[in-house]
Amino acid sequence: MTQVLNEPIYVAQLHELSVGIGKKVTIDCLELALFRQENDDVLAVENRCPHKGGVLSDGIVSGEYVFCPMHDWKIDLRKGEAVAPDVGCVKTYNVSIVDEAVYIVVKE
Ligand code: FES
């Protein structure tokens, strides 16, 4: 894992991501969920719900939010926070897009 920290890591081509559908990607032992937005921004979060570990890439997407498939918590994909009354957060990751290539940066 050490060698991937702070380096942009290629994860997908933009056309492989669909608006409204999460995509799971794995970097070493880290599993992320990518969510393409209407404006072609891509938001990336840890692919594990802060409640009981539901797989967020399988959730229902609504703009910048995803509803966990397990118990329907609503997670803000920009902040990584569960929306009240639920509490907890997931890690978020910086995404950069160069031409069609999507990169994320994993920080410690
Ligand atoms: S595991 Fe996500 S809401 Fe329960």
How would you describe what is shown here?
It contains no helices and nine strands. The protein starts with 7 loop residues before the first strand and ends with a strand. The chain has 108 residues and is an all-beta fold. The structure holds FE2/S2 (inorganic) cluster. FE2/S2 (inorganic) cluster binds at residues 49, 51-54, 68, 70-71, 73.
Can you lay out the helices and strands and say which pair or pack?
Elements: E1 8-13, E2 23-27, E3 30-36, E4 42-46, E5 60-62, E6 65-67, E7 74-76, E8 92-98, E9 101-105
Antiparallel strand pairs: 1-9, 2-3, 3-4, 4-8, 5-6, 6-7, 8-9
Bound molecules: FE2/S2 (inorganic) cluster.
Residues 49, 51-54, 68, 70-71, 73 line the site of FE2/S2 (inorganic) cluster.
Question: Features of this protein?
Answer:
single chain, 108 residues, mainly beta, six-stranded antiparallel sheet, three-stranded antiparallel sheet, 41% strand, binds FE2/S2 (inorganic) cluster
Q: Can you describe this structure in just a few lines?
A:
By secondary structure, the protein is an all-beta fold. The chain has strands spanning 8-13, 23-27, 30-36, 42-46, 60-62, 65-67, 74-76, 92-98, 101-105. The chain starts with 7 loop residues before the first strand and ends with a strand.
